[in-house]
Design goal:
Elements (H helix, E strand, L loop, with lengths): L3 E5 L8 H14 L6 H7 L4 H9 L1 H20 L11 H10 L3 E5 L4 H10 L8 E2 L13 H9 L5 E5 L2 H8 L5 E4 L6 H6 L5 E2 L2 H6 L12
Parallel strand pairs: 1-2, 1-4, 2-3, 4-5, 5-6
Helix pairs in contact: 1-4, 3-4
Length: 220
């Protein structure tokens, strides 16, 4: 049982993962590095500090890591206007809030990007708190973001909602369960193997099934 619902933002509430993948691809190409988009996509959901060495290797991180992250930010800023909310995102958040949960929207993105995404889903009107890159030292799959989200509302117990295996891995390090949606492109099998309790094809399907999940009713 939980009193706090921690929602990942990128890829879970807004359809941004493929924009991130394209931005990273363009950032790599600035430095003469070619990474296939499928491989880049497999790393989306990690923070940029983890992403570069995981996808391109430690040598690339040592040589270009900070420059690549700066290039990614520039490229993504040019695409952010194309990002759209997933169908049913606001309605899902509203219902979870009405069921008595503290609501935290958790992102390790840069503050202007997070603000833009919260505006897309009218998240500020519902959330008790939200996070940005300024709030955490280490990004997913490290647990810092999840711990910070819970602490922001003095939550006693949380449940993570995300689209990637990295959400589940981060939450598991704090023994926090995860519910998953397939909006990030990971398969049901991959999410379950990462420890996700239940997987839904969409936010609309998730909302319809809330009574059969740990989000049926808050403990407080």
């Amino acid at each position: 049982m939980a009193d706090t619902a921690i929602f990942d933002v990128d890829g879970t509430l807004v359809d941004s993962n493929y924009h991130h993948a394209l931005a990273w691809s363009r950032a790599f190409r600035r430095y003469g590095i070619t990474q296939p988009l499928w491989r880049i996509h497999r790393g989306i959901g990690m923070g940029g500090d983890m992403f570069v060495p995981a996808v391109a290797g430690r040598d690339v991180e040592d040589a270009h890591g900070d420059d690549l992250r700066a290039a990614w930010a520039e490229e993504f800023d040019g695409l952010i206007g194309e990002v759209q909310p997933f169908d049913g995102a606001h309605e899902l958040l509203l219902e979870v809030k009405q069921r008595g949960f503290r609501l935290v929207l958790a992102s390790s993105g840069k503050a202007p990007q997070v603000e833009a995404f919260l505006d897309l889903i009218d998240g500020k009107s519902l959330a008790d708190a939200w996070t940005t890159a300024d709030d955490v030292a280490n990004s997913k799959p490290e647990p810092d973001l999840v711990a910070t989200a819970l602490a922001k509302v003095d939550g006693a117990s949380g449940i993570m909602i995300g689209d990637s295996i990295f959400d589940a891995q981060a939450a598991a390090k704090l023994q926090i369960p995860t519910l998953g949606v397939r909006t990030g492109g990971f398969s049901v099998g991959e999410l379950l193997e990462a420890g996700v309790l239940q997987v839904f094809d969409s936010l609309v399907a998730f909302r319809r099934a809330l009574d059969g999940t740990p989000l049926a009713r808050a403990t407080r």
